[in-house]
Amino acid sequence: MPQEGYRILVDRLWPRGIAKECAALDEWDKQIAPSTELRKWFNHQEEKFAEFTVRYRHELLQKNQLMHLKHLSEKQKVTLLYAAKSVTINHATILKQVILEM
């Protein structure tokens, strides 16, 4: 999947039903994902997404990996992979926005 560039799984947990050998990942960055506490609180409930966004952005400011992702994205296309069912209500959309704002 060269057209997808550098592929990073940005979930703390490995996605169910996906064999690691078949994932074609370049990197798995567990630490950039929301904390376990925040992930459990949010529980992919759409009505909590606005508050989740605020809390996750605050967590991201504490993470050194953010600069790593920013530098990667300046050199090449980066694809953020995640296991959430919704393409709009998930932490990867927030992460992408934060990287673009940097």
Give a brief outline of the structure.
This protein has 102 residues and is mainly α. Helix content is 40%, strand content 10%.
Give a written overview of the molecule.
The chain is mainly α and 102 residues long. It has one domain. The chain has four helices and three strands. Helix 2 (49-60) crosses helix 4 (91-101). The N and C termini lie far apart (27 Å). The model has no long low-confidence stretch (mean pLDDT 94).
Strand and helix layout:
Blueprint: E1 6-9, E2 27-28, H1 36-42, H2 49-60, H3 65-75, E3 78-81, H4 91-101
Estimate percent helicity.
40-55%
What coarse outline follows from CA principal-axis ratios?
Answer: globular
Quick one: how many beta strands? 3
Q: Report the major sheet.
A: 3 strands, parallel
The end-to-end span amounts to 27 Å
| Rg from Cα | 13 Å
Overall tally of domains: 1
Low-confidence stretches: none
Number of helices: 4
Summarize the helix and strand pattern as letters: EEHHHEH
Structural class: mainly alpha
Report the β-strand fraction as a percent range.
Answer: 5-15%
Average pLDDT confidence is: 94
* Largest sheet, spatial ordering of strands: 2-1-3
Keywords:
mainly alpha; three-stranded parallel sheet; 4 helices; 102 residues; 40% helix
